[in-house]
Description:
The protein is of the alpha/beta class. It has two domains: 35-205, Rossmann fold; 212-328, no CATH class. It has helices spanning 18-21, 55-62, 82-93, 107-120, 125-128, 133-142, 211-222, 229-238, 243-257, 272-281, 298-318, 322-328; strands spanning 2-4, 12-16, 24-28, 71-75, 98-103, 148-153, 183-189, 202-205. The strands form two sheets. A five-stranded parallel β-sheet has the order 5-6-7-4-8. A hairpin with a 7-residue loop joins strand 1 and strand 2. Helix 7 (211-222) crosses helix 8. The longest helix is centred in the C-terminal third of the chain and has 21 residues, at 298-318. It is elongated and about 65 Å long. Residues 1-25, 285-301 and 318-392 have low confidence and may be disordered.
Amino acid sequence: xxxxxxxxxxxxxxxxxxxxxxxxxxxxxxxxxxxxxxxxxxxxxxxxxxxxxxxxxxxxxxxxxxxxxxxxxxxxxxxxxxxxxxxxxxxxxxxxxxxxxxxxxxxxxxxxxxxxxxxxxxxxxxxxxxxxxxxxxxxxxxxxxxxxxxxxxxxxxxxxxxxxxxxxxxxxxxxxxxxxxxxxxxxxxxxxxxxxxxxxxxxxxxxxxxxxxxxxxxxxxxxxxxxxxxxxxxxxxxxxxxxxxxxxxxxxxxxxxxxxxxxxxxxxxxxxxxxxxxxxxxxxxxxxxxxxxxxxxxxxxxxxxxxxxxxxxxxxxxxxxxxxxxxxxxxxxxxxxxxxxxxxxxxxxxxxxxxxxxxxxxxxxxxxxxxxxxxxxxxxxxxxxxxxxxxx
Length: 392
């Protein structure tokens, strides 16, 4: 019997017993348990404003328990509102459904959430430390007596959902087909590649909003005092109808609109037209040249988020909000500020530099066989804990 251990976060082991049984099995060795390995796994609360332009998708997801397709993947570029859709789904079904929310930003957060979920389902600490812990967890999920919803958010690197060299299509990793009629799994990710996900996963592309819905989002957030529907629609189009950019701009205008003109900063923008003119004039650090016929791509999306985010930070700083000072410390000294959707320029803390999951180098040939290739070189070392508020 030959045994070898890939660099799988120090948490996975492959045991080759082909010489004896003619097959290969994979065992999971969990990391050492720590007292802090429990974290809240409740769904985040959404703001009181309606979620615009997502009714058809939400209705499909709400009825997901009625069909056989019960592993859903919401995919799209950053800022399109995938997490908001998942949170709205959780809010709609929570009165009669057990909802669990796991962050898959990195291995540490995901594994910590899994341990919390396992404990809430009744697994003991000893069971969490066994090699068949993943199987025990899924057995508990499949046997759960109430209807349940498991949301895995920000799984931009699908490798986080895998165990060792297992492929997602095998259905033996952390993401598996649902055997129980009581369960539904929803994953949010920027990766919409069909060869990334198993054939038992249903992919739902999440795009930017229509111009009418995007304009209404601005009015919902900023109120009618910032302008009429026509001016809101014009600004929304200028922002590429990107939900995150709309939220940042609308929230900024809502804050400036609540300040009496007698006490307001003269340079503060208070209307949809003023905000659009500032973008057109390049007053904001990064302009956003998107026209009616232009396709929104991650790079211009990052530009508008960077510009609107910079403006919001400036407003907070003028008002003396302490958090703005801490957030501004992450921006570089150059005139151009980074985009939260661009991992190569995103703000980082002064701890050890680390590459984001979405930008890690992929092994060559990973798409040739229709699934991710296995290999120990993919696995990062276990990340250190980050200070509060740091998204590096």
